[in-house]
Write a structure and sequence with these properties.
The chain is mainly alpha-helical. It is about 60% helix and about 10% strand. It has two domains: about 120 residues, Arc Repressor Mutant, subunit A, CATH 1.10.10; about 80 residues, no CATH class. The longest helix is centred in the middle third of the chain and has 18 residues. The protein is globular, with a radius of gyration of 20 Å.
Length: about 230
């Protein structure tokens, strides 16, 4: 069956790091591993929360994915396990077991947040969430906003320290951490930029999918601020 083509109107996009194309793609020589890797980017992009992961069931219960891996259930299951093993051995995905009414395997993207989540789980810093789709909740270490700023943005000044103290009272730690990450990703290492993101989230609500699509708009806004100074 031929693909009918992409449709007009708003199209949901999946964010894929550039290093996938420059470093990973040339090395992947197993079709199942490639499918699993791309499926992981897509499925993780649809999830929300500070720490996102996939369970084995997120792969095995996707009918279209499984049909693409094998002509029958047994063949598809074998291909899925092999493909996941290849992705984990390559370092694209991080696999960590949790004991929640039996052992379950969680798969994180090998990113700074993914590595932090795996280390936290290995230290026992997790708890049941009570949610069927995301049954495990990582208990993150409390954010030190001042160290976060110095490590990612620049030296502290008394004025910046006052602004950070005020932000700490008004916004959740995870908002401040994510806004700082966006500033770094967009090469806009400025407290003014971070504060604008936090203010927008507080005013209009925080929609993670929309926020990820707004990076180019955010870069343009920051450039306008720099030009006006």
């Amino acid at each position: 069956m031929a693909f009918p083509g992409f449709q007009d109107g708003e199209v949901n996009v999946t964010s894929i790091p550039a290093s996938f194309f420059s470093e990973l793609l040339p090395e992947i020589d197993h079709l199942g591993e490639l499918k699993i890797t791309l499926h992981s980017f897509w499925h993780l992009g649809r999830k929300e929360g500070a720490f996102r992961y996939l369970r084995y069931a997120d792969f095995s219960q996707d009918d279209r994915l499984m049909k693409s891996l094998g002509s029958n259930q047994k063949e598809a299951e074998a291909q899925l396990k092999q493909s996941l093993d290849l992705a984990v051995r390559r370092g694209t995905l991080l696999e960590v077991p949790v004991n929640l009414e039996g052992v379950d395997l969680l798969y994180f993207l090998n990113s700074p947040k993914g590595r932090a989540a795996v280390k936290a789980i290995e230290r026992g810093e997790w708890r049941p969430s009570g949610e069927g789709l995301m049954p495990v909740e990582v208990v993150p270490e409390s954010v030190n906003i001042y160290r976060l700023y110095e490590e990612n943005i620049g030296p502290l000044t008394p004025l910046i320290a006052d602004s950070l103290r005020e932000a700490e009272e008004n916004y959740p730690d995870e908002w401040i951490e994510e806004a700082t990450r966006l500033a770094v990703e967009n090469n806009a290492r400025s407290w003014r930029y971070i504060a604008a993101i936090l203010s927008r989230w507080q005013e209009k609500g925080k929609d993670e999918r929309k926020d990820r699509r707004d990076t180019e708009k955010a870069r343009r806004r920051y450039a306008e601020w720099e030009d006006s100074e």
